[in-house]
Amino acid sequence: MFMKRKVTLILAMMLLVLTASAKKGPKYVFYFIGDGMGTNQVMGIQYYLQDIEGKYGYKPLCFTQFPYTGLVVTYSANSDVTDSSAAGTALASGQKTDNNVLGLLPDRETPVVTIAEMAHKKGIRVAIGTSCSIDHATPGSFYGHTRNRNMYHQIGNQLSDSGFEFFGGAEFRQPAARNDDDQDNYVKAEKAGYTVVRGYDEYKQKAASTDKIILFDKDSKSDHALAYSIDQKEGDLKLAQVTEAAIDFMMKEPKKGFFMMMEGGRIDNACHANDPGAYIREMLDFDEAIKIAYDFYLKHKKETLIVITADHETGGLGLTAGDYKTNLKVLQYQKMSKDAFTAHLEKMGREIGDILTWEEVEKELKENFGFWDKIELTDKQTASLKSAYVETFGMGPGALEEGKYFEVSKMSDEAARVMTECAQISWAAGCHSGSYVPVFAIGAGAEQFTGQIDNKDIPMKIKKLAGY
Ligand SMILES: [Zn+2]
Question: What does residue 397 show for φ and ψ, rounded to 5 degrees?
Answer without folding.
Answer: -60, 145
